[in-house]
Design goal:
The chain has 276 residues and is of the alpha/beta class. Helices cover 36% and strands 16% of the residues.
Length: 276
């Protein structure tokens, strides 16, 4: 018995399969072309005992867009700078913790980084002076002279760095910064969370709130923790402003090109194999 009405259904089914296959392939291509982004969390722990253009720069500007020789020269200059200033900075801990990758904001041709203060969902004891402490923190790092500048955005649309407040963390910390960067070590976004109380519920005094804000903005610009208790980037800092060592560290960080520091090994060849 002939069933001519089945032919249009079969044709339609084949057409749908073809369209679905094309859509899947387009999605695969978009994912393959997308730039991978990694992330990291850095934090400050509570401490309530608070009291009251060089050759490096030229190479950094070349970044990852120059020739292979340029990239090697940039890595060499970065290693030499890190070795030369090892005793006066703490970027060695950054290199050790990131598998020899310098992670920082890319050069922006004078454009300021935009930060947004997110007040939606702020705790009931939030006060406007806490936002002022965050603004002061950005000004503190801008004044170092590393080429960093910041401007407050009216909302989160297009913001590079977002700051929000919580009552407390469930674990032993009073601040947290989450960074997102691309495969070349260029930071793309930063999310800062500031607590107004310790995990045990103790209200942080204003000097502590200010110190934590500066510490977390330091992470947002790419700095690691310091092992020196006098530095603002010490995990449970006593400091109120960036120390000379903090300043030297961020100045060095922004003289280095983002990306790999160690020399990359050439692919191994079988014994007796000639040049490819």
């Amino acid at each position: 018995m002939r069933r001519p009405h089945l032919l249009p259904l079969v044709t339609l089914g084949l057409l749908l399969l073809v369209l679905a296959d094309r859509a899947l392939e387009a999605t695969r291509r978009r994912l393959a072309a997308a730039e991978p982004v990694a992330s990291e969390t850095r934090s400050a722990t509570p401490n309530l005992t608070h009291n009251g253009a060089s050759p490096d720069t030229r190479l950094a500007r070349r970044g990852n867009t120059g020739s292979v020789d340029d990239a090697r020269l940039a890595r060499l200059a970065a290693r030499e700078a890190l070795t030369r200033e090892a005793n006066s900075t703490y970027l060695d801990s950054l290199i050790l913790s990131t598998d020899s990758v310098v992670r920082r904001w890319p050069d922006r041709s004078g454009r300021a980084l935009r930060f947004a203060l997110v007040l939606d969902g702020a705790p009931s004891d939030y006060a406007p002076r806490m936002a002022d402490a965050a603004r002061d923190a950005f000004r503190a790092w801008q004044s170092v002279g590393a080429g960093l500048s910041f401007v407050e955005a009216p909302d989160t649309n297009g913001a590079d760095i977002m700051v929000r407040w919580v009552d407390h963390f469930e674990y032993d910390r009073v601040g947290q910064t989450d960074l997102a960067w691309d495969q070349y070590g260029r930071v793309r976004r930063a999310f800062i969370t500031l607590a107004i109380r310790t995990s045990s519920g103790t209200m942080l005094p204003d000097p502590a709130l200010g110190g934590v804000a500066i510490h977390e903005v330091g992470h947002a610009v790419g700095l690691p923790h310091s092992a020196d208790t006098l530095d603002i980037m010490f995990p449970s800092t006593h400091a109120r402003v960036p120390s000379d060592r903090d300043r030297r560290s961020v100045l060095l960080l922004y003289r280095l090109p983002p990306g790999q520091v160690r020399e990359l090994k050439e692919p191994s060849r079988p014994p007796g194999a000639g040049p490819s």
